[in-house]
Amino acid sequence: MAHILVMGASHGIGLETVKAALAAGHRVRAFARSAARMTLSDMTLSDPNLERFTADALNPIDVASALEGVDAVVQALGVPVRHLIGPVTLFSEATNLLVPAMEKAGVARLIAITGFGAGDSRDAIGPLQRIPFRLVFGRAYDDKDAQEMRIRHSHLDWTLVRPGVLTSGPATGRYEVLATPASWRNGLIARADVAHFVVAEIGRAFYAKRAVVLVG
């Protein structure tokens, strides 16, 4: 079993990853500014393998402290929809802190959740989707591009996870891992299924140094 740092643990895919990792028997350090207010099931709240870690991904002291004693990092940061209308820099700034901190701490395994349309998967967006995608998510995905580039240029054992359109609901285990550019396409996928893939990948590292798209 691994000791996993989940950054962005209080909501979305980060929260689902915390739940899935605990269910698999891993130790989890749940990193978030609102870690103390995380909403989890009663069983998960009492899990001795859960450590709530209230911290800021843009604070180098917080990041260095969070890396102590962990085996792998899951970066699952997000920004509120209302922030998409202005400049977005969280993904790249946080990654510019995290990568050298991991290298210094000797923590090699990083799984970063970005999204379909980030990096070279942008070319796989259908023509009818491109204009609305850029209007709504353009600033965020420009920053995710920078995030991915920084990770690719690191010495870490990274995996870039690019889920399609996220949905709620339980994990189904029925999803596709698209690992070649020719196969990349958009589609729906539950956040819990993304978490299922992430936790499985921590144990096997089959997609190390690769980018994958996940769809249901």
Automatic annotation (TrEMBL):
Domain NAD(P)-binding residues, every copy: 8-201
Protein name (record): NADH-flavin reductase
Species: Methylobacterium goesingense
SUPFAM superfamilies for the chain: NAD(P)-binding Rossmann-fold domains
Coiled-coil residues: none
